Fold this protein.
Amino acid sequence: MPDERSPEIAPPSMRVISVVCVCLMLALAGVQATHLHSASSAPDNHDCSVCSIIHSGAIATVAYQMPPLFARSVAPPAKAPATQTLLLVRCLSIRPPPAV
């Protein structure tokens, strides 16, 4: 009977796929960081797919702009401070002094 508090274990195929993806990502990152070109290649326009990936930035476009969550409002005028208390009994302690 499995313990209800133990986390669910992923199937072995998911673990293998995860490890392959991580290794592929690390290998491609190493290729991008260490690839070289010969001195005869033109630096400005050459057809290197690795360079095009590195030098192309993510294009940020705004498809929809959310309306503001907060709008400015005018502060209400301040009221005069109340000088009377709403308490009926003014008391500084909640129990009598100890008996001596």
Summary: Residues 12-36+48-55 form one domain. The helical segments are 12-34, 49-55.
